Amino acid sequence: ILWAEAVFLEARPQRKTKSVDALKKCEHDPHVLLAVAKLFWSERKITKAREWFLRTVKIEPDLGDAWGLFYKFELQHGTEEQQEEVRKRCENAEPRHGELWCAESKHVLNWQKKTGEILAL
User: Fold this and answer.
1) Hey, which of 31, 46, 107, 116 would disulfide with 4, CB 3.0 to 4.6 Å?
2) Whole-angstrom Cα distance, residue 16 to residue 18?
3) Is residue 66 over pLDDT 90?
4) 0.85 cut: is pTM over it?
């Protein structure tokens, strides 16, 4: 988590270098992979961002934050089929972890909502 945060604490020109350092230290950590996906998204490298989002949810399907960001990414840049695919895969994975995911899923107003509804939030 600290390496993922460190990527975005750097100035824009140094972010790529910091992400390479983070990947060397934590190669299979979903938070670092998610940070790299967000980095590509911010640089408007849509295909690479999608690949890294897919890699992240494949390694850790229980991380709800990754699903939420992946869904938001597809809402902006994907087709309806891609959005639906992400939603279905998220519902099948039933994520339970992630800072933002837990905040939404455990909020009092969302206590009876299903995974797909929480994903949209």
Assistant:
1) 31
2) 5
3) yes
4) yes
Q: Which two tokens stand for residue 118?
A: 């929480």
Cα–Cα distance between 20 and 15 in angstroms, integer?
9
Instruction: Record the tokens describing residue 44, joined without a space.
Output: 């408007």
For the residues 30-34, what does the mean pLDDT come to? Answer: 96
Q: Could you give the dihedral angle defined by the CA atoms of residues 85, 117, 106 and 56, in that order, rounded to the nearest 10 degrees?
A: 10
The neighbouring-strand residues paired with 63 are 97
Amino acid 60 reads E
With a cut of 90, say whether residue 40 has pLDDT above it: yes
Cα gap 22→69, rounded to integer Å: 20
d(C-alpha 58, C-alpha 45), whole Å: 20
Q: What are phi and psi of 84, to 5 degrees?
A: -65, -40
Our measurement of the distance from residue 6's CA atom to the centroid of its chain's CA atoms, rounded to an integer in Å, reads 16
Rounded Cα gap, residues 8 and 6, in angstroms? 5
**In this model, does residue 111 exceed pLDDT 90?**
no
* Whole-number Å distance between alpha carbons of 63 and 91: 12
> 63 with 56: CB under 8 angstroms?
yes
